[in-house]
Design a protein that fits this description.
This is Glycogen phosphorylase. The structure is a single chain. This protein has helices at about 5-10, 25, 30-50, 50-65. With about 70 residues, the chain is mostly helical. It has one domain (about 5-65). The mean pLDDT is about 80.
Length: about 70
């Protein structure tokens, strides 16, 4: 779900996926939407693209670590 820091870090298909949009639309997100995203996007990447899944994990870790850290600028 796109909330908290994930709304800033989620680059669809690069660092992960978002399900739903604003807080109002999340209330109406249906299980069908979630299962469609899993069936058509996430699971094919995991099972059918052996290099794609690790690339996505690395992008997610790299982006998250770069933008969201506890160090303060000097």
């Amino acid at each position: 779900m796109l909330d908290g820091w994930w709304i800033e870090a989620c680059f669809e298909g690069v660092t992960g996926w978002g399900i739903g949009g604003s807080a109002a639309s999340r209330r109406t997100t249906t299980p069908k939407e979630i299962y469609d995203k899993l069936e058509r996007t996430i699971l094919p990447l995991f099972y059918d693209d052996p290099s794609g899944w690790p690339a996505m994990m690395k992008q997610s870790i790299g982006t998250g670590a770069y933008y969201f850290k506890s160090q303060r600028p000097r």
